[in-house]
Amino acid sequence: MSNVDFRLGKRPFYDNKRFRRGFAKSGDFTLAEEDILIRFGDTMSLLESGELSPESESERHFLEVLKDEGHAESKLEKTWVKYIHLARDRKRFHALNGKKHEPETVNEDVDYSDSDVLSDDITDDNIDSDN
């Protein structure tokens, strides 16, 4: 499927809500993918929402891809599927302070008392004699 029979958008497509700095500057899209989204994104968006009816085989195939993403063949279709996932799916959040699963340990409650410490060995006489 080529993009030749896929209509250009009537206006450039931008998603300032999710990609404020542009598609390519987000780091998620290449320059070629950004160009596809800007040039064809308006048409793809309108086709997806049902506001525009498909006029060519490429546009009908595009609608089939929206139902089953595994059928994406052209760069245009793959770019739109990528855009959908990045713009609409929940973003994964990785925190550095997440819950840490501690290994199970044996709880040995050992009480130490003052009598367990050998304080008899340390006397003032021993300390003074070292100097």
From TrEMBL:
InterPro entries for the chain: DUF413
Biased amino acid composition, Acidic residues: 105-131
Region ranges (Disordered): 96-131
Family membership: Belongs to the MaoP family.
Name of the protein: Macrodomain Ori protein
Organism of derivation: Vibrio barjaei
Lineage of producing organism: Bacteria, Pseudomonadati, Pseudomonadota, Gammaproteobacteria, Vibrionales
